[in-house]
Amino acid sequence: MESFKLDYDGNDSTTRYFSEHPVSEWSYLEFEATVNKNKPDKPSKNKTKNAYLNTLRILKNKSNIPENVKTEIDRLLAANVEKPSGITFNILAKDSSTINAIGTGVLVPVQTNQPQQPQPQQSSQSRS
Fold first, then answer.
1. CA 56: distance to chain centroid?
2. At residue 3, does pLDDT exceed 80?
3. How far apart are CA 122 and CA 127, in angstroms?
4. Helix (H) / strand (E) containing 103
5. Longest C-alpha distance within the chain, in Å?
6. Which end of the chain is more exposed for a tag (fewer CB within 10 A), N or C?
């Protein structure tokens, strides 16, 4: 399996990489270094990574790819797809019925079942 190379003779540099390099060299870092090596205007990391992941997904669905290579493709896809991160909220409760949950820079008011306390009036005069 480690010596498997894609059977491809086209002009697409992304797909050609997988035909010129064995599965053992299909890591994203090796792919990125090779496909961008001779390009004067390097594409963005997102564009390169999307091309890599899309090509792996296409290869995974081809019937001429051995199952053990498809298993390696699954591993590479899992290793290179960003996992969604959790959101942490800090709860700030004061002497009112409103609790403000602050997460990732967003203020989210959360109402409780307690009766609301009167809030102090703000001055309508603007300060200069």
1. 16
2. yes
3. 12
4. strand 98-103
5. 76
6. C
Rounded Cα distance between 76 and 32, Å, is 14
pLDDT at 100 over 90: no
CB 24 within 8 A of CB 5: no
CA atoms of 124 and 83, how far apart (whole Å): 47
CA dihedral 106, 111, 112, 114 (to 10 degrees): 130
53: helix, strand or coil: helix
Helix locations, the chain, DSSP H = 13-20, 28-35, 45-60, 67-80
Cα separation values, 50 from 24, 81, 113, Å: 20, 10, 47
